Amino acid sequence: MQVLVTGGAGYIGSAVAEELVGQGHVVVVLDNLAKGHRDAVPPGASFVHADLADAPTLRSTLERQRIEAVVHMAADSLVGESVADPARYYANNVGNGLALLDAMRASGVAKLVFSSTVAVHGEPTKLPVEEGDPTAPINPYGETKLAFERALGWYDAAYGLRSISLRYFNAAGATEHCGERHDPETHLVPIVLEVAAGKRPHVDVFGDDYPTRDGTCVRDYIHVRDLARAHVLAIDAAGRGTGVYNLGCGGEGSTVLEVIAAARAVTGHPIPARIAPRRPGDPARLVASSARAARDLGWRPAENDLRAIVESAWRFRERRR
Ligand SMILES: NC(=O)c1ccc[n+]([C@@H]2O[C@H](COP(=O)([O-])OP(=O)(O)OC[C@H]3O[C@@H](n4cnc5c(N)ncnc54)[C@H](O)[C@@H]3O)[C@@H](O)[C@H]2O)c1
Question: Using CA positions, which residue lies closest to atom 35 of ligand 1?
């Protein structure tokens, strides 16, 4: 297959591109490098340095490279930033996403995999979160992802553009080639490893009085390689029809203190932790069900051991020193 990965110079997109190349597909990465890294594009994939808003480049890329399917990872994805600057999120996550769909329609490309988020559900009404649970985003990031998911349903009905939306919580870990390098970094695993590496003095633990096994928040961490595999499986599924799948770690999730303990064990560093007040809007537990993905896509997380996930991220960090 000839596949375009938008945002393929970013964290998860580069892992998706790497997985596709590894499976023998022809891969084109399109990224504006606003948040991605040129050297994250895996060897074997070609690279187009462009913004999704650049319609002529988008269209010529789809047509010249004879693209058959698109994996759409390019987005802005910081919750706090989305609250401070919703216009940016609507323009990029909805406006530029629709521009991509228009270019696909014009070029006759009819298969898309969309990287969505469980944030479309807002504060879950029950756990684990399932696809049919109410959608009620509590920030512009989740709202814009939901708006695009909904557009996809209408684009299938009207234009026959088939798509699979994948919703998940926290990507974590690294492959040999691809790892997390966000700036600013807001994700727990790389923050904890920055403390281990002496780049931060301590990690803040926001609340230790939640009704969880150790009082800290439980989150659902999925190895980035498992996510990459899910995106590739979803390309095939997109050929069969439009749908939404939640992806979860398959277990209970991990608490903040468990992540810190795993990082201490992996790195051998003390990693000072400081208990800070709860953050508004942080639910005690967030875990997604992947029962439907297991049934329809044949996807199950294969690398869901927390310590192994943290170890892969640490190795990635150490290799780049
Ligand atoms: N990181 C997570 O835990 C997580 C969880 C759920 C969903 N997601 C979704 O997965 C996707 C990838 O997340 P990530 O953590 O790899 O983010 P990332 O910022 O590392 O990657 C996004 C990439 O998209 C590129 N990009 C953004 N807007 C663009 C545009 N207009 N034109 C061209 N390129 C553009 C950026 O330069 C970046 O390389 C996002 O859509 C995000 O919403 C991420």
Answer: 74
Work out which ligand 1 atom sits closest to the CA atom of 119.
6
Q: Is the CB of 248 under 6 A from ligand 1?
A: no
Enumerate helices (H) and strands (E) in the chain, giving the number of each. Answer: 11, 13
The minimum-distance atom of ligand 1 relative to the CA of 96 is 31
Is the C-beta atom of 309 inside 6 A of ligand 1?
A: no
pLDDT in tens, 206-233: 999 999 999 999 999 999 999 999 999 9
Beta bridge partners of 171: 222
User: Which residue's C-alpha comes closest to atom 7 of ligand 1?
Assistant: 117
Phi, then psi, of 211 in degrees rounded to 5: -80, 65
Closest to 167 measured CA to CA, from 187, 145, 139, 185: 145
Contacts of residue 86, defined as CB under 8 A and 6 or more positions apart, other chains included, come to: 140
Give the chain's end-to-end CA distance (angstroms, integer). Answer: 36
Per-residue pLDDT reduced to its tens digit, 75-119: 999 999 999 999 999 999 999 999 999 999 999 999 999 999 999
Residues with a known catalytic role: 141
* Euclidean distance between CA atoms 124 and 283, whole angstroms: 8
What's at 314, amino acid-wise? W
Model pTM above 0.85:
yes
Ligand 1 near 165 CB (within 6 A): no
